[in-house]
Design brief:
Helix content is 40%, strand content 16%. It is of the alpha/beta class and 236 residues long. The chain has one domain: Rossmann fold (3-Layer(aba) Sandwich). It has a seven-stranded parallel beta sheet, sandwiched between helices. Strand 1, helix 1 and strand 2 form a beta-alpha-beta unit. Helix 3 runs parallel beside helix 4. The protein is globular and about 50 Å long. It starts with 6 loop residues before the first strand and ends in an 8-residue tail after the last strand.
Length: 236
């Protein structure tokens, strides 16, 4: 008897790294539930696109409920959704704070809690969170306190989840990128942003996708924060 096809939930999936991850998991014959605020319906019957703010509990509940109803299970969760606001610390507004925590922390908490509850039923699963190397290696001139506060928390939570669920067949890992060429960075900024990395260039979306896929297939790896950052975390 053939084993059931695996199912991945991917947040922040409408563009950039998230959209590339949807394609990568489909190429591996996963069924995918894809979420972002603005995501459009997919013509692929094995991709279920659900629009909504992942920071809202009801949206997370819908993602998991629809994944189980449509595809029967949840095997992988990729917490890719995130907000980055580069401002001096004293310039952050209360709204900035609420927005960043809403997506980066609340979004992680709600969907991860609900997805792991489904993974427990089959005693297997994998949670991968996209964080940032800035959480451990701040850069002069790149103000990032809210990113460090939230994504650094996800790095710590990843290790805690890995230990809590290690004997239940569920792994938790994170990918900590440097600055990646995505639609959020205008082409004229690439040279300056690339110079912030020891290797002298920005990363590509495929660098992050490859790291996630490595972790997906690495059954003996859990609690890992995999830095894909052109050497930033090693020093300057």
């Amino acid at each position: 008897m053939n084993s059931p096809r695996k199912v991945a939930i991917i947040t922040g999936a409408s563009q950039g790294i998230g959209a590339a991850l949807v394609k990568a998991y489909r190429d591996r014959d996963y069924r995918v539930v894809a979420n972002s605020r603005s995501i459009k319906p997919s013509s692929d019957p094995d991709v279920l696109a659900i629009a909504g703010d992942i920071g809202e509990r009801a949206v997370a509940e819908r993602l998991v409920k629809e994944a189980v109803a449509r595809f029967g299970r949840v095997d992988t969760l990729v917490n890719n959704a995130g907000i980055f606001i580069a401002k001096p610390f004293t310039a952050y507004t209360v709204e900035d704070y609420a927005n960043v925590l809403g997506v980066n922390v609340n979004g992680f908490f709600h969907i991860t809690q609900l997805a792991i509850a489904e993974m427990e039923k089959q005693q297997s699963g994998h949670v991968v969170s996209i964080t940032t190397t800035l959480a451990e290696s701040a850069i002069d001139g790149v103000p990032s306190v809210l990113a460090s506060l939230t994504k650094g928390g996800l790095n710590a939570a990843t290790k805690s989840l890995a230990i809590e669920y290690a004997k239940r067949g569920i792994r938790a890992n994170a990918v900590a990128p440097g600055i990646i060429k995505t639609p959020m960075h205008a082409a004229q900024t690439h040279a300056a942003l690339g110079a912030l990395h020891p290797v002298g260039r920005m990363g590509d979306i495929n660098d992050i996708v490859d790291a996630v896929l490595y972790l997906e297939s690495a059954g003996f790896v859990t609690g890992e924060i995999l830095h894909v950052d052109g050497g930033q975390s090693a020093g300057h």
